[in-house]
């Protein structure tokens, strides 16, 4: 297994994105910021902000009222990920990871800046241990920076560290608090495992027993899980353990939904590679302390996609199902313990990129999109009450929340 090499870089280059920069027609707009649509409300609350992508643009909403506070032109399809500092969002676009300042926690207007972490085919964004980790699928390079430095740097990108990849593939990396570096291994023909290095770049552990490795999650005590097409890999305290799925040779976990205060990881699950559609009907529960993997079949009618599971209050899992309800999943008992009807029933997307309902959670509040009716909802997960709803003039797709 070929090993990535560490390269330390200086301050990242600031890239002016032509299509975005051209929007800044107002002379009073600060440097590095594109014009936003006028706020729908004359007063902005100093709380969370919700970023929503739509075809050709990005909305920013007030997290309390769900009123639109900014509307930016962008590329036709973008992906959104929190940067980890409760204010900024990473917009995955053609040039790399563009920085969206939601201004969460302030009464300032949001700004889609022209600050871009350059990346060839930008992919996963991971936040852990005060670091933000950006992965470029086109090179398998990993860019790392101190999360707090993003806000502190204001009109420039923070200083970064780059770990050069070996062979390009759709991958992901994680950095633990002691500097341990975990990254996937693969090439254009496929992906098969992970390698773990210490801060000096020496290999601690490696495994090639994870076909189709995809997705990661860090649970309590920095136990890290990666999904495989036949189970999962668990890394903890210097060792990698392969956890086999009950279905062989294909029992795929591709995404891990974690809480850093729980040793239990909830994962998605699929055991038929030829199944049509994207709706899934089972979940995995990985106990990182016992090193076990279980598959839990969901009741008839409870189906979801990768966008529809989140962890929330009491470390429970919250599944936004195609039947229109948020189903509350207790990973300890492996049972559904409650359900809240929220949206109208919906069908599987034709392609994963297609707009379909999604859920993200901040504190006790879940933000839920309903693309069929161009709506977004805020739900109190402790009661199941919808505390705010809004009908948009666009169809929401990706969603990310900055907590403020």
Could you provide a short overview of the structure?
It is built from two helices and 34 strands.
Strand adjacency order, main sheet: 1-12-11-10-9
Describe the biggest sheet? 5 strands, antiparallel
Q: Tally of extended strands?
A: 34
Average predicted confidence as pLDDT? 90
Number of helices: 2
Alpha-beta classification: mainly beta
Measure the end-to-end span.
42 Å
Beta-strand percentage? over 45%
Radius of gyration: 20 Å
Overall outline: globular
Q: pLDDT under 50 segments (min length 5)?
A: 1-42
Q: Percent range for helical residues?
A: under 10%
Topology:
Blueprint: E1 5-11, H1 18-21, E2 49-54, E3 57-62, E4 68-73, E5 79-82, E6 88-93, E7 96-101, E8 111-118, E9 122-128, E10 131-136, E11 142-146, H2 148-152, E12 159-164, E13 173-175, E14 181-187, E15 190-197, E16 203-207, E17 214-218, E18 224-228, E19 230-236, E20 239-244, E21 251-252, E22 256-257, E23 264-269, E24 282-287, E25 292-297, E26 309-311, E27 317-320, E28 325-330, E29 335-341, E30 359-362, E31 365-370, E32 375-380, E33 385-391, E34 399-402
Antiparallel strand pairs: 1-12, 2-3, 2-34, 3-4, 5-6, 6-7, 7-8, 9-10, 10-11, 11-12, 13-14, 14-15, 15-16, 17-18, 18-19, 19-20, 22-23, 23-24, 24-25, 26-27, 27-28, 28-29, 30-31, 31-32, 32-33
Report on the architecture of this protein.
- The protein has a domain at about 1-140 and about 150-165.
- It contains 2 helices and 34 strands.
- The strands form 8 sheets. The protein has a 5-stranded antiparallel β-sheet with strand order 1-12-11-10-9. Strands 4-3-2-34 form a 4-stranded antiparallel β-sheet, with no helix packed on it.
- The longest helix has 5 residues, at about 150.
- It is globular.
- It has about 400 residues and is mainly β.
């Amino acid at each position: 297994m070929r090993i990535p090499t560490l390269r330390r870089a200086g301050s990242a280059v600031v890239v002016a994105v032509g299509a975005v920069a051209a929007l800044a027609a107002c002379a009073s707009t600060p440097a590095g910021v594109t014009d936003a649509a006028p706020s729908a409300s004359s007063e902005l609350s100093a709380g969370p902000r919700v970023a929503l992508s739509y075809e050709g643009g990005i909305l920013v909403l007030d997290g309390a009222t769900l009123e639109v506070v900014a509307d930016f032109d962008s590329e036709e399809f973008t992906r959104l990920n929190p940067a980890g500092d409760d204010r900024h969002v990473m917009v995955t676009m053609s040039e790399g990871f563009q920085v969206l300042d939601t201004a969460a926690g302030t009464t300032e207007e949001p700004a889609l800046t022209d600050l871009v972490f350059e990346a060839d085919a930008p992919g996963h964004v991971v936040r852990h241990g005060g670091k933000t980790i950006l992965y470029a699928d086109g090179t398998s390079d990993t860019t790392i920076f101190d999360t707090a430095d993003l806000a502190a740097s204001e009109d420039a990108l923070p200083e970064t560290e780059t770990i050069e990849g070996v062979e390009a593939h759709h991958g992901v990396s994680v950095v633990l608090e002691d500097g341990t570096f975990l990254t996937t291994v693969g090439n254009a023909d496929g992906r098969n495992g992970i390698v773990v290095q210490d801060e000096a770049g020496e290999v601690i552990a490696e495994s090639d027993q994870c076909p189709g490795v995809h997705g990661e999650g860090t649970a309590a005590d920095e136990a890290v899980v990666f999904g495989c097409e036949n189970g999962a890999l668990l890394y903890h305290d210097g060792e990698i353990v392969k956890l086999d799925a009950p279905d062989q040779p294909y029992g795929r976990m591709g995404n891990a939904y974690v809480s850093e205060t729980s040793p239990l990881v909830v994962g998605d699950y699929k055991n038929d590679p030829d199944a049509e559609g994207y709706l899934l009907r089972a979940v995995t529960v990985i106990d990182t302390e016992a090193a076990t993997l279980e598959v839990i079949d969901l009741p008839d009618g409870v189906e979801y996609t990768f966008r529809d599971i989140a962890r929330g209050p009491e470390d429970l899992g919250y599944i936004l199902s195609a039947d229109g309800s948020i189903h509350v999943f207790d990973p300890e008992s492996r049972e559904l313990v409650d359900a809240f009807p929220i949206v109208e029933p919906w069908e599987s997307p034709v392609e994963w990129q297609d707009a379909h309902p999604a859920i993200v959670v901040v504190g006790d509040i879940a933000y839920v999109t309903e693309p069929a009716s161009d709506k977004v909802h805020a739900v109190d997960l402790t009661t199941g009450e919808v505390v705010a709803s809004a009908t948009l003039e666009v169809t929401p797709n990706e969603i990310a929340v900055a907590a403020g």
